[in-house]
Design brief:
single chain, about 180 residues, Pyruvoyl-Dependent Histidine Decarboxylase, Chain B, five-stranded mixed sheet, four-stranded antiparallel sheet, about 25% helix, about 40% strand, flat
Length: about 180
């Protein structure tokens, strides 16, 4: 008898920020702020499963149990430099055809505003999906222009981003930001 593959049926998006004396404690604080601190997180790559349903953060968090193995696409970044801008984001692109898979992108780093990081991760996910679906586009054009091409193709039905940014704590505490796409089996 063959095992049934574990394909997530639902997904939700969350984000958080934490500030503490150590990097690990600030990461735990960010997980707590995001509501996923009680899970054993397993990082996965960036495929949005076919026919997967996007649910609210509130609904998703209600389904989590302490100690649960939880699959997620996770972006995280930390700094202990006062006032340094740190960011983490995940982007999503969903195909119009429900039997196709989509893409989730993740990025983390320094110096990107929330708006710029949001556009960046959304663009990455949409571009990966567009190339898979055979949508013709010029990668050197601005994302706003490509976004219109993607929408007009009728092959990409939804894009979005979940982003968390913060400035490093003024007193030098570790500041950690994270964004996650949490998958439910």
């Amino acid at each position: 008898m063959q095992d049934t593959p574990s394909v997530p049926k639902e997904i939700f998006f969350t984000k958080g920020v934490g500030r503490q004396k150590t990097r690990l404690e600030s990461f735990e604080s960010a997980l707590r702020h995001a509501g996923i601190e009680k899970c054993n997180l397993v990082r996965v790559s960036s495929i949005f499963p076919p026919a997967c349903k996007i649910i609210s953060r509130q609904r998703g968090l209600k389904h989590l149990k302490a100690g649960q193995i939880t699959y997620c696409v996770l972006a995280e970044a930390s700094t202990d430099e006062p006032n340094r801008l740190v960011g983490a984001g995940v982007g999503l692109a969903v195909p119009a055809e429900g039997s196709n898979y989509g893409y989730i992108s993740e990025h983390h780093g320094f110096g990107m505003t929330r708006h710029r990081l949001s556009d960046f991760v959304e663009d990455m996910a949409a571009t990966m999906l567009a190339s898979t679906l055979g949508i013709a586009f010029d990668p050197d054009t601005a994302y706003d222009e490509r976004r219109e091409i993607y929408k007009m193709s009728g092959k990409i039905v939804r894009t979005q981003a979940t982003v968390q940014t913060a400035e490093g704590d003024k007193n030098g505490l570790w500041t950690t930001v994270l964004s996650a796409a949490v998958m439910m089996l």
